Amino acid sequence: MPTDPRQVRSTTPAGRTPVEVAAVGETMVVLCPAPGEPLEHAERVAVSVGGAESNVAGYLARLGHQVAWVSRVGDDPFGRAVVRHVAAAGVRVDQVVVDPAAPTGLYLKDPGPEGTAVHYYRAGSAASRMDPGTLADPGLSGARVLHLSGITPALSASCRALVEHAVTARPLAGSLVSFDVNHRARLWSAEQAAPVLRDLADRCDLVFVGQDEAQTLWGTTDPAAVRRLLPTPETVVVKDGAVGATALRHDAEPVFVPAPRVTVVEPVGAGDAFAAGYLAGLLRDLDPVRRLRLGHLMAAQALTSSGDNAPVPPWAWFEELLAAPVEAWSPLDLTATPTPV
């Protein structure tokens, strides 16, 4: 692997650079009024784009990897906006299907005195019509990683069948299957989701889960207990917010890496950034400690940015911190260290 991930990789005989990661899931248009303004009184809204899997794809692409986002959008202005937004991050979108019979999903943010409520309009969306055939595109052949999340099986029966097919039949031969539990209470209750997400996660190779999710779904925050619930994956990464993250692998001692201190601007999207950082470390064959560090450093970028897609620093900045001795990493405080862009 090149030292600098921005170096050009070899291309296929057909002239196309092979995909390293395929990220599958729905991305929606987001409408948001001015900060603090209730939606019912808003005269104007800002339009943006949001989706967990495409966030992971975008961060990986900006880290220099060849990534394809696999999904469906409606044949409408919102669908074109979503595809344009994802492609602008350097992500390949040629595996995105434009569906003329279903709309692009939409959600609206509604600020209020007790926090921001979210209203989803995604039932019957184009993405909810994904099915096991979604992964049949030969352009995905050879991908090193297939990344999925627990959001997709909650969208529809066909989407659940897609994820079950992906983790059971392994249609992308040789790909490591990565799964972010990503429980969304607005899509399904913990009682509905718990057995399904545990079963799907346990069929994967790499699983990301937050301690808060583990508590909600399975009644535990203990990383070792989560590992016992998910005995099959090669690696289970349990995240504990601002405290740190633990990687639990087969036949190896658990590895814990504390999170650096940051000033949080917006917590949304930090989990996606962490997953992208960890996967980038895996693709670069970094050791377990450096994979977790890269996850934390990417999460820090998301936490300190107001947008869903934070800027990514030069690779040299990451290299220096990834190589730092333990005594320098543990007290790392990024609030006092400006991040280069």
From TrEMBL:
The keyword Transferase applies. GO terms for molecular function: kinase activity. Gene3D superfamilies: 3.40.1190.20. Keywords: Kinase, Transferase. The keyword Ribosomal protein does not apply. Residues 21-313 form the Carbohydrate kinase PfkB domain. Pfam families: PfkB. InterPro entries: Carb_kinase_PfkB-like, PfkB_dom, Ribokinase-like. Belongs to the carbohydrate kinase PfkB family. PANTHER family: 2-DEHYDRO-3-DEOXYGLUCONOKINASE_2-DEHYDRO-3-DEOXYGALACTONOKINASE, SUGAR KINASE. This is 2-dehydro-3-deoxygluconokinase. It comes from Micromonospora taraxaci.
